[in-house]
Input
Amino acid sequence: MTKLKIFLTKGKGEGVTKESAYCEALNNAGLINLNLIKLTSVLPHNCEVINKKPKFSSKDYGKKLYVIMSKIMTSKASETVCAGLGWTKKKNGAGYGLVVQIEGPSKEKVEQEIRNSLNEIAIYGKNEGKKKMNIVTEEITCKNKPVCVLVVLAFNKIEGWNNPVRSF
Output
C-alpha cells in the first residue's frame, strides 16, 4: 500500500491589508490560487509527512486542496505573532496521528502549548504508544504593515469541481 504524502510547508507575508499579507504568506508556502478546505486534527492511517512545498501548475488554479493550518495575522506595530502545528503518530508509523494548531505571541509559548495539548489529547485520541512530538512554528514581527504567518499540512490530493480526485 502506498503511503499518503502530506506536505509540510510554511510562509510569511506582509501587505497593505491583513488579507494581502495572508495571500503573500500563501504564495510563500506554495499554496496560492487554490481553494483550501481546512481539516481539524487527525492524520489518516498510512501517511507520511514530508517537509517540502507542494508543486502545482496553473491548470490546478481554483481546485480544492485539503489542509490542516495554523494561521495568525496582526497589524499592530512591534507585535510578534507565531503559528504552529504539532503532531504525533502511532509508533508503528502506519497508524493515524493527532494534530494541534496553535497560535500565539512567541515561538516558546506556542511550542509549550503544543506540547501540553498533545500530551493531553493523546488520551482522548487513544494514541497510546505515540512517537515523538513533531513541532513546526513560524514567527513574524509587525513593523509598519500588516503581517501573516502560517504553517500548513497539505494533503497530496487536489480535487476539481467536476472531475475525480487525483494526486499531484
